[in-house]
Design goal:
The protein is an alpha+beta fold and 114 residues long. Helices cover 20% and strands 42% of the residues. The chain has one domain. The longest helix is centred in the middle third of the chain and has 12 residues. The N and C termini lie far apart (39 Å).
Length: 114
């Protein structure tokens, strides 16, 4: 059985598992991830309440055993990230990205440019 290890970040309010957009596409779940998860560049941080459950189930179906290595980060680390979106809009050739999103009352975020 194949095995993979992922980092599970705990904060004061939430938990997130770090993975990548490419890996979510490989698992064929990238279009199923909610905007409650966060993203920064190619990294995706799956929220623990729904998206992590989907992630774990997909590994189980694929016969991949996963281990979550715990780590801590302050919630503000994740609050400053964009909400997950499957399609990111490319603004110009310098790869500027733009997205608007709101995941919940706690994480209301205005239009952001990275």
């Amino acid at each position: 059985m194949e095995a993979k290890t992922f980092t599970y970040y705990m904060t004061e309010r939430h938990g997130y598992v770090e993975t990548t957009r490419a890996y979510l596409r490989k698992l064929k779940i990238s279009k199923l991830i909610s905007p409650y998860s966060r993203q920064s560049g190619t990294k995706v941080y799956l929220e623990e309440d729904g998206d992590l459950t989907l992630f774990v189930k997909r590994h189980t179906v694929a016969g991949i055993q996963i281990t979550l290595k715990e780590a801590e980060k302050p919630q503000r680390f994740f609050d400053n990230m964009l909400n997950y979106r499957m399609n990111i809009v490319k603004i110009n050739s310098s790869m500027d990205l733009q997205q608007t999103g709101q995941c919940c009352k706690e994480h209301t975020s205005p239009s952001q440019t990275v």
